[in-house]
Design brief:
This protein is an alpha+beta fold. The chain is about 25% helix and about 40% strand. It is built from four helices and nine strands. A hairpin with a 3-residue loop joins strand 6 and strand 7.
């Protein structure tokens, strides 16, 4: 199984997300991650879809995406061909026994504490999907109250041949 990241430039109008998600569900392709947002041009949005499958499945996904009328351009990347980031906010319950440990972990992993109350800390991390998962794994001993994740965002790596 190979993981691929599809960066799909689409027309920014209602129903496009539903059509693309429908394409995946009709063909039983799994979506591991999906993030959508407007680009610098309000008429277009970028969908970043992470999916996995064998070589045939990967080719089929790209072909089917390119057939959609609302799709302007599809770029397919392996994880090595792009820079990928994910944003996660998580609320953890702390006490006097684990507060220092949590704060040290935040310092090591470059996690920002964005809110705090008498019993809870809200943490923010923007990093690779692997490091986001690592943080969750490292906090498994702490009481995690809530988690919100964006899904993966990705762009191809910069190279000398880029045209802007």
């Amino acid at each position: 199984m190979k993981r691929r990241i599809y960066s799909v430039l689409v027309e920014n109008r209602s129903g496009v997300l539903c059509k693309v998600a429908g394409l995946f569900s009709r063909r039983c392709f799994n979506i591991d991650s999906l993030a959508v947002g407007e680009t610098d041009d309000p008429a277009t949005s970028r969908m970043t879809i992470v999916s996995s499958g064998d070589e045939r499945t990967i080719e089929q996904i790209e072909k089917q995406l390119n057939k959609k009328l609302d799709v302007i351009k599809v770029n397919t990347f392996s994880e090595q061909q792009c820079i990928a980031r994910e944003l996660m906010l998580l609320k953890v319950k702390y006490n006097k026994n684990n507060r220092r440990e949590i704060m040290e972990l935040c310092e090591i992993m470059k996690v920002e504490i964005v809110d705090m109350s008498k019993h809870f800390l809200m943490l923010q991390i923007c990093d690779t999907p692997e490091r986001v998962k690592l943080l969750l794994d490292m906090l498994h001993t702490v009481s995690i109250a809530e988690v919100a994740r964006t899904g993966t965002l990705a762009l191809s790596k910069c190279c000398e041949n880029d045209e802007g």
